[in-house]
Recover the amino acids of this structure.
């Protein structure tokens, strides 16, 4: 399975999600090749060559979303780009869905954003990823959180995400 985790917005959690999903995949006995194609600061509405190539070469596309109103606007363009790639270049590409990252269930705004997105039939995934300082610690130790702290709340969330993606 070739999967691309795609969002041109910086800092939405692409690398964090990829590392943890890849770590779970290895625990499940899968062989994993991970490539981070997205350098810092790639925050333009511009589909760079290597990102485009990754989408053309992939079977699935997962879109992290940081529950921010600006990012929501960008999602429409982003989904449109993915649809264009599907129709022009890669009919086997499927959108896994949108995964909310740094989601705060008790805050009104992010909850409302996701409700509105669901009402518009955007493919928001069931699993939500919360926020934890442990993510930064895990980067500092160069170790995915799922390895560093197997019982952590976010480890369980990453596992739920992994299984939700497998069952789709
Ligand atoms: N769920 C989370 N809880 C706490 N911190 C998080 C979470 N997700 C991401 N972060 C932090 O946010 C920052 C950006 O995350 P990350 O590097 O994964 O994003 P990215 O989309 O890959 O960014 P870039 O576009 O710059 O490559 C990092 O400092 C990371 O530690
Ligand atoms: Mg990154």
């Amino acid at each position: 399975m070739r999967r691309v985790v795609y969002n041109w917005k910086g800092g939405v959690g692409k690398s964090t999600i990829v590392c943890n999903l890849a770590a779970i995949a290895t625990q499940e006995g899968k062989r994993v090749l991970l490539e981070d194609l997205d350098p810092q600061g790639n925050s333009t509405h511009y589909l760079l060559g290597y990102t485009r190539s990754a989408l053309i070469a992939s079977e699935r596309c997962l879109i992290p979303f940081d529950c921010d109103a600006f990012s929501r606007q960008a999602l429409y363009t982003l989904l449109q780009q993915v649809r264009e790639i599907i129709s022009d270049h890669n009919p086997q590409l499927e959108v896994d869905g949108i995964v909310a990252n740094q989601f705060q269930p008790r805050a009104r705004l992010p909850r409302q954003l996701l409700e509105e997105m669901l009402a518009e039939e955007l493919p928001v995934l069931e699993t939500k990823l919360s926020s934890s300082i442990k993510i930064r610690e895990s980067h500092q130790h160069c170790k995915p959180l799922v390895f560093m702290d197997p019982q952590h709340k976010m480890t369980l969330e990453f596992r739920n995400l992994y299984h939700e993606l497998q069952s789709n």
Remarks:
- Helices lie at 14-27, 49-57, 69-88, 108-119, 133-140, 145-148, 153-167.
- The longest helix spans residues 69-88.
